[in-house]
Amino acid sequence: MITRQRRQESGFTLIELLLAMTFIAFLLLFTVAAVMQVTKQYVKGMAIRQIDQTGRQLVDDVSMALRTGVQPNGSQLTNNRLCVGGKSYVWSIDGGVINRYTDDTVLRFVSVQDATGSLCASSTAKVDKSKSTDLVGAYITPLRFSVTQQGRLWSITLVLSTSGENIAITDASSVLGFSCGTNQFCALGDFETTAYSRGGQ
After folding, report:
1. I need a surface site. Which of 46, 103, 128, 144 has the fewest CB within 10 A?
2. Is-above-0.90 flag for pTM?
3. Tens digit of pLDDT for each residue in 186-197?
4. Hey, where are the domains in the chain?
5. Is the dihedral of CA 180, 184, 186, 191 positive or negative?
């Protein structure tokens, strides 16, 4: 009697192959989603850090000028311009006063050595870009900047946001008056301080 031995085939069945490919696809999808989430958090963290550093430096710079410079009078604090101690600060706010460079481009927030205060004397005077220092950079937008005086005390309030498509939106229900909404890369910073002026009236 002749017995036939069945030869055992080695390899994967079609179902095993499909299961393996499905597992690999889910693994790749999970990895890509994790990398995107980490990248998003990193970019937002960098934006927050940049806004925080810029805001603190800008508020400190203006406070120092107000403390040590001659106090501005009404004509030296107008139309998003503050002239004090031989220095002028000029800024633009979306939906508010827009100041420009001499080449007619919109400036964000700059300081200029201006011993005569000529930038505050004329609210239409344009700023020479080569003589100014940009204080916020291209990726940050000032949403609010105010300087108010009570005697020798000056209150400084500053709200900064990421710029471009990542800019914060106006939101009356928010404490700041702005919020990021659903924008994933938006960041906001709020800075307040008080400076005592030692300059003369």
Report:
1. 103
2. no
3. 889 999 999 887
4. 19-196
5. positive
